[in-house]
Specification:
The chain has 49 residues and is mainly β. It contains no helices and four strands. The relative contact order is 0.38.
């Protein structure tokens, strides 16, 4: 039931993190504020496939 997703930085578009998500409980796209090494700061990371 859990799918592996990748988190992409909203500014530099690099895929920095991977995590799992339950598709039944979380139907929308996941957005987390994570540290981006390329941007050198905490930025919003959005879910990609």
């Amino acid at each position: 039931m859990r799918d592996i997703i990748h988190l992409q930085c909203s500014e530099c578009k690099r895929k920095n993190y991977s995590t799992t998500k339950n598709k039944k409980t979380t139907t929308g796209k996941l957005e987390l504020k994570k540290f981006c090494r390329a941007c050198a700061g905490h930025k919003v990371h959005r879910e990609t496939k």
